[in-house]
Design goal:
- With 409 residues, this protein is mostly helical.
- It folds into two domains: 2-203 and 283-408, no CATH class; 204-282, Metalloproteases ("zincins"), catalytic domain (Zincin-like).
- The chain has helices spanning 2-28, 45-78, 81-93, 97-130, 138-170, 174-201, 211-222, 259-264, 267-282, 285-307, 311-315, 324-364, 367-380, 389-395, 401-408; strands at residues 204-206, 230-233, 244-247, 254-258.
- Strands 1-2-4-3 form a four-stranded mixed sheet, sandwiched between helices.
- A hairpin with a 6-residue loop joins strand 3 and strand 4.
- Helix 3 (81-93) packs across helix 4 and helix 13 (367-380) runs antiparallel to helix 15.
- 23% of the residues are buried.
Length: 409
């Protein structure tokens, strides 16, 4: 039994890596030396070539990052790395199993973070900088890492500790109470993310009175959408890429515009983009995404509760004693194929909702402005405008540019 589980634990990451690289290969087959006919008049030659070079370098870095992570996981499984960390955690935590679990994942989290830094640094300061996207200083970069680590410690550790305590207190039925607890945490995060988390990393200032604010408020009022909080975030502190998003629900809803969006897009284009976002809100897409997330969390916890007590799963990783944290590691690997299937469904629903939001904006505002904004975003961000359909099926939460433009017509 242990040998079978061991083989499965080794096979799943390998198959996942091969699948990922195959999909990247398919995507590359869509590239060409000349601008495709369907993109002529949309994407200039220079930007088209740059987008290929940019994505080629990103894929190359991702290959080495994924390969290194694969080899790390295989080494941890085959050479008993998880068992070694388990031994360290037990030495430090003694017979306090909640503490042992927290220490175990703290060690793994710290190690994973250290491994990711070189790849993240290359992406930010070599690739992104080379193509004119990165505006972040090294000081800001490392401060972000420190802040993220502190947030993970002060928020993640108590949550993990409480969930572990629920398991030892309630046994396999812990998943129900954990589901309720995590749902409450998610709702709280949705309500107060912009108030509590965003200010740690960025400055948010109310959009000043003027023609843009007047246009946004007029459009929102005509759509039956009440909005009072319109903020500008200093996205240019880190990147030249543009964005806009909604945050919060109910009375805490807030429109957030990147300063780069305001700088490089016309007011009509910005209103059209926000019309798309308002369409998401009024069509209940945000609530649907939340419910899907809650359902998937419940399913994951239920399945985890079915195997966490099975000693064979922990023993397959080389430990002599079964434990909650080792069961969680095994489950994370075993769950990944199902996670891929669920992500396919989520991405399909998301792409469908994007079309619906585009339609809403085009029905309530001149669709040419949304089309113009989508073109600018794709060209400016050097997006791959001719992705392979299979790659889109697996990874894209938004439809490709050309598909969206076709619908807008």
């Amino acid at each position: 039994m242990n040998n079978t589980i061991f083989i499965v634990l080794v096979s799943i990451p390998v198959v996942g890596f091969v699948l990922e690289q195959f999909l990247v290969y398919l995507n590359k087959t869509m590239w060409s030396n000349e601008v495709p006919v369907i993109l002529r008049g949309i994407c200039p030659v220079k930007e088209y070539r740059n987008s290929q070079l940019y994505n080629k370098e990103k894929y190359s870095l991702n290959f080495w990052s994924s390969l290194f992570n694969l080899l790390t996981i295989l080494a941890m499984v085959i050479l008993g790395g998880f068992a070694i960390v388990d031994g360290w955690a037990r030495e430090l935590g003694g017979d306090k199993m909640v503490l042992v679990t927290v220490i175990f994942f703290a060690i793994l989290g710290f190690g994973s973070g250290i491994i990711d830094i070189p790849f993240s640094y290359i992406q930010t300061f070599i690739i992104e900088k080379k193509y004119g996207f990165n505006t972040m200083s090294q000081k800001t970069y490392f401060w972000d890492i420190i802040k993220t680590g502190l947030l993970t410690f002060f928020i993640g550790v108590p949550i993990l500790g409480f969930v572990t305590w629920l398991y030892f207190k309630l046994g396999s039925s812990f998943w129900i109470y954990t589901w309720i607890f995590l749902t409450i945490i998610s709702l709280f995060a949705n309500f107060f993310y912009s108030d509590l988390i965003v200010p740690i990393f960025n400055k948010q200032l109310p959009l000043e009175a003027g023609s843009l604010r007047t246009r946004i408020e007029a459009f929102a009022k005509s759509s039956g959408f009440e909005v009072k909080d319109i903020y500008v975030i200093d996205g240019s502190k880190r990147s030249t890429k543009s964005n806009a998003y909604f945050s919060g629900i109910g009375p805490k809803k807030r429109i957030v515009l990147y300063d780069t969006l305001i700088k490089e897009f016309s007011e009509e284009e910005i209103v059209a983009v926000l019309g798309h976002e308002i369409g998401h809100y009024l069509k209940r897409h945000i609530l649907l995404s939340m419910f899907i997330s809650f359902f998937m969390n419940g399913l994951m916890l239920f399945l985890f509760s079915m195997i966490v007590d099975h000693p064979a799963f922990s023993l397959a990783l080389g430990t002599e004693t079964a434990s909650f944290h080792m069961g969680l590691i095994v489950f994370g690997i075993l769950y990944s194929p199902l996670s891929i299937v669920l992500d396919l469904l989520v991405n399909y629903i998301s792409r469908k909702n994007e079309y619906t939001a585009d339609k809403y904006s085009s029905e309530h505002y001149d669709p040419d402005y949304l089309a113009s904004a989508l073109k600018k975003l794709s060209i400016k961000n050097l997006s791959n405008m001719t992705p392979h359909p299979v790659y889109v099926f697996f990874y894209y939460s938004h439809p490709p540019l050309l598909k969206r433009l076709e619908r807008l017509k």
